[in-house]
Design goal:
With 125 residues, the chain is of the alpha/beta class. The protein contains five helices and five strands. β2, α3 and β3 form a beta-alpha-beta unit.
């Protein structure tokens, strides 16, 4: 798992990857392609940082990359995913957390498309 502030190529020791799970969108999509092996696959399921990208189409087809879009699955698949997260101790990246009263500030931050990971709203019961 890579951090948005990292030099991704350095973090991967110059290696390329077969698969990128891309959940951010415009802010990271092309960086994701930059670490993808020839013939590799990007699975995109989120666009919290914007849903329009500039794509170098020639580079895309020369590298024979695959792109798969995905949406939420069934309730059963959701529970399987949660089990997988628990089993492998996978934790989501939370960029920032805001109190409920700061929701406007959180939305302003999202509009900047600068986040890497989730922006959470804390609701106290």
């Amino acid at each position: 798992m890579l951090d948005n502030d990292q030099d991704w190529a350095a973090a991967l020791n110059g290696e390329k990857v077969d698969l990128v799970i891309e959940s951010i969108g415009a802010a990271t999509f092309n960086r994701s392609l930059g670490v993808l092996k020839k013939g590799g696959t990007v699975v995109s399921f989120g666009a919290s940082a914007g849903d329009e990208i500039a794509l170098d189409l020639r580079s895309f087809f020369y590298n024979q990359w695959n792109l798969h879009g995905s949406t939420l699955g069934s309730v059963e698949e959701f529970h399987e995913m949660l089990d997988l997260f628990r089993k492998h101790k996978i934790k989501p990246i939370v960029d920032r957390s805001y109190d409920l009263e700061q929701t406007g500030e959180a939305l302003s931050y999202l509009k900047q498309s600068a986040q890497f990971g989730k922006v959470a709203i804390k609701i106290n019961s």
